[in-house]
Structures are given as C-alpha cells and as structure tokens.
Design brief:
Layout: E1 7-9, E2 15-22, E3 25-32, E4 42-44, E5 50-58, E6 60-64, E7 67-71, E8 76-80, E9 85-89, E10 96-103, H1 108-122, H2 133-143, E11 147-149, H3 154-170
Antiparallel strand pairs: 1-2, 2-3, 3-10, 4-11, 5-8, 5-10, 6-7, 6-9
Helix pairs in contact: 1-2, 2-3
Length: about 180
C-alpha cells in the first residue's frame, strides 16, 4: 500500500510525495526536473473519473483533446473520462512541481502507482521518468483498468497486454499488487 507521506526519488531527480490514497481520492505531489514527465497520448475510460493536474511551481506543457496547453503556477489541467491527454511535462531548462489527483481512485490506480514508484526509484523507467511500455502491459494485465493509448484499437492493446506482461515480468517489470 502506498502510504501518504511516503516520498520516492528517481536517479534523474524526479521526486514524488504521496498526499492521499483513499477510495475517494488519490493524489501525489511531483517535482519534474528538466525534460521529464511526458506521457504518450492516452485516455482513461472509467466512468465518472476525473484526473486533475494543478501546477504549483515552474512551467510545464500538457495536452488535452489535441490542444497543447502551457501551464504556470495555479493553472489546472482537468481530464474527464474519455479525454485524450498528455500529462504536463517540462522542456529543456524547465522545472515544475505539480499536484496530480485522481477522483475517485479506481482499482487500477494503486497498482499503477505502486509499480511506477518502485520502478522510478530503481531507474527502470524511460527518459521521461515514466513507465516503459512493458511495465504498463504488466500493470494492465495484473490490475485491469481502462487506460489505453490513443490510436490503436483497444482490443489490440488488450491482446498485447496478455502477450507482453509475461515478458515484462521476466525483465523485472512486474506489477506491484498489494
């Protein structure tokens, strides 16, 4: 279980503090070093779920529905179920601190974050300090969930998760399930 108050650090300098982990809400504070935080365009299909990024310090760029958004302190990027988005990320020479909240916390969320934070501390993430594709496949297979990359048909992604999760597990990218 990811406990509020726990802090995780990557070798690259990303710092993540768990703020809340209840069924109603999951939240972290994340400090993004230069050139980190960019995800592939994706969507969450859990009905009624809201993902919210509130920029606390610095500058970052996110994307919502194909529109790039430049964020400064106090700006919010709110993502509703089905919205294609890219998480706020920093460019070269930029840093940022943001709060990332998900309401309500779907069953996929604690498995995803426990896995990602474990891999983050070990340096088993991509250059953006985000989970690698194999790791995401392991989480999808272990926890289910309705988070999918924008573009490829969901049925294809589900089949890939079934095929690639065992490969991820053999390579040390096993989903962390409490």
């Amino acid at each position: 279980m990811i406990e509020p108050g726990a802090t995780y650090r990557s070798p690259r300098g990303t710092v993540v503090e768990v703020l809340d982990n209840r069924p109603e809400r999951f939240a972290i504070r994340r400090t993004l070093p230069s050139g980190t935080g960019r995800t592939a365009p994706h969507r969450h299909m859990e009905p009624g779920a809201v993902e919210r990024f509130t920029l606390l310090e610095g500058t970052a760029t996110g994307k919502l529905g194909g529109e790039q958004r430049r964020l400064g302190p106090g700006d919010v990027l709110e993502v509703r179920s089905g919205d294609v988005h890219v998480h706020p990320h920093t460019g070269a020479g930029e840093t940022a601190t943001l709060e990332h909240a998900i309401e309500p916390r779907e069953p996929f969320v604690p498995v995803y974050f426990a896995s990602w934070l474990t891999w983050l501390e070990r340096g088993h993430v991509d250059r953006q300090d985000e989970p690698m594709l194999l790791g995401i496949m392991s989480v999808l297979r272990a926890a289910g969930g309705e988070t999918w990359v924008a573009g490829p048909p969901v049925a294809v992604q589900k089949a890939l998760a079934a095929l690639l999760a065992p490969v991820a597990n053999r390579r040390g990218l096993r989903a962390v399930v409490d």
